[in-house]
Amino acid sequence: MISDDERFVIVFNGEIYNFNELREKLIESGLARVWRGHSDTEVLLAAIGAWGVQKTLENLVGMFAFAVWDKVSKTITLARDRMGEKPLYYGIVGDRFVFSSELKAIKAAFGSDLRIDRHALAKFVRYGYVPAPESIYEGIKKLQPAHYFSVGSFSSAPEPVSYWTLPAAGELRDELSQASDKEVVDVVGERLSAAVKSQMIADVPLGAFLSGGVDSSLIVSLMQSQSSTSINTYTIGFNEPEFDEAPYAKAIAKHLGTNHTEFYLGADDAVSIIPHLPEIYDEPFADSSQIPTILVSRMTKQHVSVALSGDGGDELFAGYPRYQITAGLWARIEKLPLPARQIMAYSLRSLSSKGWDNVCSILPGSLRAKVNGRRIYRMSELLGSENLAQMYTGLMSQWQSTDNVVLGIDAQHQGVASWESAVDYVEEMRRWDVSQYLPDDLLVKVDRGAMSASLETRAPLLDHRVAELAFSLSSDQLIKNGVGKWPLRELLKRYVPTSFFDRPKAGFSIPLAQWLRGPLKEWAEELLTEERLKREGYFDCQKIRSAWLQHQSGTYDRSLHLWNILMFQSWLDKNNH
What we know:
- One of its GO terms (cellular component) is cytosol.
- By secondary structure, the chain is of the alpha/beta class.
- The chain has 28 helices and 13 strands.
- The chain has a five-stranded antiparallel beta sheet, covered by helices on one side. It has a five-stranded parallel beta sheet with strand order 11-10-9-12-13, sandwiched between helices. The protein has a three-stranded antiparallel beta sheet with strand order 5-4-6, covered by helices on one side.
């Protein structure tokens, strides 16, 4: 779109939820010129012309990525939303500056000039995604959330600057530190209700994802409380009972009176989706819950064009059990000398995960539910950590060391977190998740998966004002009696009985370990042949084959390690490298 004075040209992806308020501000200040329509894009252009990019960004509420060309200053400005809901790639290829919301567009234009970045590949193998600002290609970057830059000459690399950050530790806390429990829940409810209200405005049919967990149930509750008709809700279930939360979602939907639809996912559905994953996700991406995300998006799109989700609740409001477990474990073991911990780790690894499963089978039922071979083996990998940051990075990694898995890299490029001494361990882990895991894993999964079905998703919990509030609360206000997301849980109790949602977190995972030994085995074996691995030259063939054989024998569960490798192999195959 071109501005009315023809000075600015913009390309824009996303939604500005407060564009009507911004339009009124521009009109009241006398800065608006001629309005040609009622779109948020036109308001965004007018705001940039009146206020400049920095002030405009500070006033936006929404999810977005845009590029704007200024004909007068001969500069182009790229910007991305605060939480990283919408993607934006950029780089210099030869003597040309390129940018796109899809990496495949850059690949289509400059494919022969692009080379795979092995250091980025190492981080992908570790995490299952490539963390910003890197991409899988050398010289192509992701613009990080809440950043923008302007360039007039493309001879040197752009230098993005931040226009927003989460409140620093202690910031904005004084006024909330003395608040009663009820006051905390009230203020969270007010801010989240406002976010839901703004995101329910749509000129197309609208619904919501409902998993039956706290976050999605709360969003649906707030939506239904603000709607005069039954809202549409959508759930995906699994034929394997241990992975299936659909019955819980159905019960909550019935209680709230929503118009509810279920879809059950089987192995055949996964097999049908897998060949398309490299096309849906621009670069290698290995969060296996991408499969149910795509399928529930396709089902939802048959009924509505916009769906609200509960994404962000765990990271913002300390919902993951790992926050408390990791902080507690580190507090206990940091006093032990590192050599002693390394000996303990070696001892725990003397048995395979299957062997530990056999040992755990004789434990009392209450303990057996909490301890298994995989968890014990996982703990052994973390005991040798030198600090909390290294331990948490290890917990969030599949391959603990990638320099001996990915060929042609060194240990210093493994992407391990580095924190200064933390006063609040839980807060540091949340900050890491919000800055990396949330935008580069969870939001990529949802945005690309939904957009592949032409479904727009919106996440009220990711309204930056909700995020600011969450980080203005202390860990003690977020976690009570060992349970996280306390304000969200208390707020949900106002709409849904506790018995409907008070249960262990199940996540949105698939039975990957079983499927790799069953219906996905042939597909995986073809991608992991010794001849292929050696010919392509990206991975240590012996290590990959060993992990594959260990998994097939049942000695170890290597499903998550292997899924990272398989997703790269599949992407490599589709992209003709």
